[in-house]
Design goal:
- The complex is a heterodimer of chains A (239) and B (299).
- By secondary structure, chain A is α/β, with parallel strands linked by helices.
- Chain A has four helices and eleven strands, in the order E-H-E-E-E-E-E-E-E-E-E-H-E-H-H.
- An eleven-stranded mixed sheet of chain A has the order 1-2-3-4-5-6-7-8-9-11-10, with helices on one face.
- Chain A is elongated.
- Chain B has eight helices and 16 strands.
- Chain B has a seven-stranded antiparallel sheet.
- In chain B, a hairpin with a 2-residue loop joins strand 9 and strand 10.
- Classes of the chains: A alpha/beta (239), B alpha+beta (299).
- At the A-B interface, loops of A face helix 8 of B.
Chain lengths: 239, 299
């Protein structure tokens, strides 16, 4: 039996307080109408279904529970998720799964710019395409994209893994294509199964860090100073 | 921050409710911009007739007297109606001459807009109050754009409020900040533009005015703006018979668009759109960076 909380009658604070107080149970959220912070801060294995589109930071800081949004989400879906699962049937805008430490985020539609920015262990599966600068400075976890990726994918990436089935418009600084080894095929197969998506792991390409930006290179600063027109400083840097 | 909304009615179905629906959308964006607000509403004008909206913030003119003087000057009938510190002059005579006369000889007034379809109102204070004071909810028409302002780049004044006019029946609202506005302002002054404030959006409006005056289409002007305007922006531009939107290449500033058979709506946040009739059947999408979107009625 699901507890229904209707946001046309209840306040957002009442909804989130009820979710925070529960140790378990099923909840349905009606009439979200683009409200911000819907189901943010869950920290127990509750199951929440949101019928409609949500605003910013839906299911932010999520732990242990399951949130399904039947609609679209705006900026910061499941930002800083620690564990559990957040799924959205429509599209997400900017910064979905940003800084997430763990758990699974599934976007059945498209994601906008900066999907998985600074991700730190979360797995993100996107049924459609991702916007520019996705997985920017991504540190750990995997981003699986069944569609295409826009410009500057994986810019300044650390040890996160990116798998894309479609076209990549361009790779960001220090992001390179890498070999799909058996363990990667296995990982993609596992994430697709967890997300409930039907695709062939062998259709995906893997991208990750060239690790060229990890260490300071004196040659880089020399070139930069020379380009900046400061020959004297450049010479000094070269010594 | 700032909040922007635009509503374009493709069919007659909701045109009697244009202002009411725009006011509902504006209300949802109140938290994004509590400092000031403004709106431009468009309806199908009488062919050949010009409307000029003016603001008299520092004076309380006898509007009838001003209209009589303008009528004598133009040699054509001039009517005027006023609401608080705003007044709308209408004439079938030379519209450009009417606008210029009001700029040069109006009793300490600022010309906010001119054209065949547009009326423009703006003021400091709570956006809901601005909507009530200038009867947004009572207005009918084909399309509207509106703005709630949280000032970051210049002072909270009526003249620093959006929308900013960029030409006949053309105006602009902006969420974001331009970083090269001082340099660009100097360049535009050399091209003959004049500016009333230190506001960065006024510079963007001046930029578009200049390009439109030079003969660019709105698409061409916006293509050039992508190169010349540096900063963060989501822009909504009200034009004759429709509106346009543009986001900068980084697209940090939010925008969402929804479309049904009857209307196209854009806003900074979905919650403004969520209030519109039949929204559950709308196609909802996020406009792409650096891409110009326009919607207009077949004229």
């Amino acid at each position: 039996m699901s507890t229904v909380i209707d946001l046309s009658h209840s306040s957002l604070r009442e909804l989130n307080a009820a979710l925070h107080a529960a140790d378990s149970g099923d909840f349905t959220v009606a009439n979200p109408r683009g409200a911000h912070a819907v189901a943010a801060g869950i920290k127990s294995p509750v199951s929440v279904t949101v019928d409609g589109s949500v605003g910013y930071y839906c299911a932010g800081m999520h732990q242990h529970g399951t949130v399904v949004v039947n609609g679209n989400a705006s900026t910061g879906l499941a930002e800083n998720i620690m564990s559990g699962e957040v799924r959205i049937t429509g599209n997400a805008t900017m910064s979905a799964g940003a800084t997430g430490h763990g758990g699974l985020v599934v976007i059945e539609g498209n994601s906008g710019a900066r999907c998985g920015i600074s991700m730190k262990g979360v797995d993100i599966v996107v049924g459609g395409s991702v916007g520019h600068m996705s997985a920017f400075m991504a540190q750990a976890g995997s981003l699986v994209v069944l569609g295409d990726a826009a410009e500057d994918l994986g810019d300044s990436i650390y040890e996160a893994k990116i798998f894309v089935r479609g076209e990549v418009a361009s790779l960001g600084a220090d992001c390179v294509e890498k070999e799909m080894r058996p363990e990667h095929l296995q990982e993609v197969a596992g994430l697709l199964a967890a997300a409930g998506m039907d695709a062939d792991p062998t259709d995906f390409r893997r991208y990750g860090s060239a690790r060229e930006l990890y260490n300071f290179h004196i040659d880089d600063i020399e070139a930069e100073l020379r380009n900046g027109g400061d020959a004297e400083l450049a010479e000094e840097a070269g010594r | 921050m700032c909040g922007i909304v635009g509503l374009f009615l493709k069919t007659d179905r909701y045109r009697h409710r244009l202002g009411e629906l725009t006011a509902v959308m504006l209300h949802e964006m109140r938290e994004r911009g509590p400092d000031s607000a403004g709106f431009a509403v468009y309806d199908k004008g009488v062919p050949g007739r010009t409307r000029v909206t003016v603001l008299a913030e520092r004076s309380a003119p006898e509007w009838g007297q001003v209209a009589a003087e303008l009528q004598a000057q133009l040699g054509a009938e001039v009517t005027v109606r006023s609401i608080r510190d705003h007044a709308v002059f209408e004439t079938d005579g030379d519209g450009r001459a009417a606008r210029q006369w009001l700029i040069d000889h109006g009793p300490d007034v600022d010309v906010l807009s001119y054209g065949n379809q547009i009326e423009l109102y703006k003021s400091v204070g709570d956006p809901d109050l601005v909507a009530v004071n200038y009867d947004l909810a009572g207005r009918t028409g084909t399309h509207a754009i509106a703005h709630t302002r949280m000032a970051t780049e210049s002072a909270v004044t009526t003249n620093g409020s959006h929308p900013f006019v960029t030409g006949a029946d053309t105006c602009l609202v902006h969420n974001g900040s331009f970083s090269n506005h001082n340099q660009l302002r100097e360049r535009l002054v050399q091209h003959g533009e004049s500016f009333q404030t230190e506001n960065d959006t006024e510079v963007a409006a001046g930029y578009l005015s200049w390009r439109l005056r030079e003969g660019d289409t709105i698409d061409e002007a916006l293509q050039r703006a992508l190169i010349d305007l540096d900063g963060f922006y989501t822009l909504a531009i009200g034009i004759e018979n429709g509106f346009a939107i543009l986001r900068d290449p980084i697209a940090c500033k939010p925008a969402v668009v929804a479309e049904t058979d009857d209307w196209v709506a854009m806003s900074s946040e979905y919650r403004a759109i969520a209030q519109l009739p039949d929204v559950e059947h709308a196609e909802v999408f996020e406009p792409e960076p650096s891409r110009i979107y326009t919607w207009s009625l077949a004229s």
